[in-house]
Amino acid sequence: MSDSSRPTASPPSSELDQLPDRDREETAEWQASLDAVIRNAGPDRAVYLIRRVHEYAARAGLRVPGLLTTDYVNTIPAAAQPMFDGDIAMETRITALNRWNAAAMVTRGSRLGLGGHISTYASAAWLYEIGFNHFFRGKEQDGSGDQLFLQGHASPGIYARAFLEGRLSEQQLDGFRREAGGHGLPSYPHPRRLPWLWEFPTVSMGLGPLGAVYQARFNRYLQARGIKDTSASRVWAFLGDGETDEPEATAALTLASREGLDNLTFVINCNLQRLDGPVRSNSKIVQELETRFRGAGWNVVKTLWGEAWDPLLAQDTTGDLVRRLSEEPDAQMQTFAARDAAYIRKNFFVGDALSTLSATLSDAQVVELFENSRGGHEPLKVYAAYRAAVEHRGAPSVILAQTVKGHTLGSRSNPETPTTR
């Protein structure tokens, strides 16, 4: 075959060019509009518009591929938070007492070299207390109720709550990790050790989250075959962000979405920490987990920032604050939580727009933003996230709640009597 008779190669085309286009002129106009936005307003504005159009299309019922990550802000804005149906002052007091008693229990044991975890429940207290006070259903009425797979290291907080309810004695709390005498409490949840309190063994190698998926699926099996009415039962799995590194913790995510297990909720305490340091210093674990769960077909609810951030985000007309929050890696966020206002102003509020924003804040307010004001520490934010999860239909939900490890805000009760009833 001569060179002149060889077929000429077609110019490369994108994947979209392989799809039929019934109106190429209209398509070209949309593309030209996007080019104009990039040219006149910059790429950030173009990305913003694409995301908003994508979200609008999804709300309109169009079948569009889902976004794998969203902006590093709360999924539920302040204006959309539901009414809180509890007594916030009373619940704050209860949570403070439970935090104190949990810490006292571990501290007393540590004098004997027994060890124990204080930080887990300290950071996750509101994640549990909002559940116990408003969402978890007991088994007294219909015998079904909810199933809880609790984060094992948070067991002191669960014991502290049981003590406050009068179901455990002070002697039993003092026997934490000392079962030999017959009155102690096991370190971690296990029904063989304390069957009236614990339903499932957790802690080990991410088996709690894996077991929760199969429990939710089994509940559907019981319901479908008329064996037991589990229609109102919900399975809750609590885990830490570091625990998601365990293969078992996320091994059955696609099974849960494929089966449409909207009776399942994961609550991940994202304190950006492991026992030995940041989860991953130069990344953002919340965004990583959001990608993983959204990719597996889950409904994702992020509760990252507390009420102190709400007015700042409302004033962020340029989007600079949201971009800044999105680009800071976890290790730097941990640094901000431990530094003073001058450091934060210099290293976070960078640029004219953010400097102007921070000028409206006192030094104490600047420190408060990073030291305490995280979504997982505020009952109204947690309540809104839980409400969104339980009302979602068609897919399992995961709540990614940002906290500060070892958080103790509002945890001081009476230091003279650490086991106050």
Q: Output the helix-strand order.
A: HHHHEHHHEHEEEHEHHHHHHHE
Put simply, the count of helices is: 16
Question: Considering DSSP H and I runs of 4 or more, what fraction of the residues is helical?
Answer: 40-55%
For the secondary structure, the number of strands is: 7
Distance N to C terminus: 95 Å
Uncertain stretches? 1-13, 408-421
Q: What is the residue-averaged pLDDT?
A: 87
Q: What does the secondary structure layout of this molecule look like, with pairings?
A:
Elements: H1 24-41, H2 43-59, H3 88-110, H4 119-135, E1 147-149, H5 155-164, H6 170-174, H7 207-224, E2 235-240, H8 253-258, E3 264-270, E4 273-274, E5 277-278, H9 285-295, E6 299-303, H10 310-315, H11 320-327, H12 330-338, H13 341-347, H14 352-358, H15 363-371, H16 379-391, E7 397-402
Parallel strand pairs: 1-2, 2-3, 3-7, 6-7
Antiparallel strand pairs: 4-5
Helix pairs in contact: 1-2, 3-4, 3-5, 4-5, 4-16, 12-15, 13-15
